[in-house]
Amino acid sequence: MSEHKIKNHLRHRKKKQLWPMILLFAGGVLLVIGAVSTLSKPSQPKAAIEVSGTPSLKVDQQKVDLGNVKLGQTVEVKFQIMNVGDQTLRFSKVPYVEVVEGC
């Protein structure tokens, strides 16, 4: 092979090896942009402060009526609990929900 052909071959080979590096770099930049945009989004809006000097829980539903439920049937209820106090809410015991039958 002549020296000119060898140089052309090496130059062409370097160009081929450059594309995977460019794609890898671009993918990394996209991942960083996505992570930054996801982490910089504000958290869910906080509830308005209704009680000062202490934490206080507020539930969006006071009562849930499921109607007649057959034995063995699974039901699901969703509700939102918010801290409307101006202090941080900490649980000293595991919280639980009491289910009252026949009300």
Give descriptors for this structure:
103 residues; 2 domains; 6% strand; elongated
Q: If you had to describe this structure to a student in words, what would you say it looks like?
A:
The chain is mainly alpha-helical and 103 residues long. It folds into two domains: 1-41; 45-88, no CATH class. The chain contains one helix and two strands; from the N terminus they run H-E-E. Strands 1-2 form a two-stranded antiparallel sheet. The radius of gyration is 31 Å and the shape is elongated.
Write the layout of secondary structure elements.
Layout: H1 3-39, E1 57-59, E2 81-83
Antiparallel strand pairs: 1-2
- What does the average pLDDT come to? 79
Provide the spatial order of strands within the biggest beta sheet. Answer: 1-2
Query: What's the gyration radius in Å?
Result: 31 Å
Give the fraction of residues assigned to helices. Answer: 25-40%
Beta-strand level of the residues, as a percent range? Answer: 5-15%
Low-confidence stretches: none
The structure class reads mainly alpha
N/C terminus separation: 94 Å
Quick structural gist:
This protein is 36% helix and 6% strand. It has one helix at residues 3-39, and strands at 57-59, 81-83.
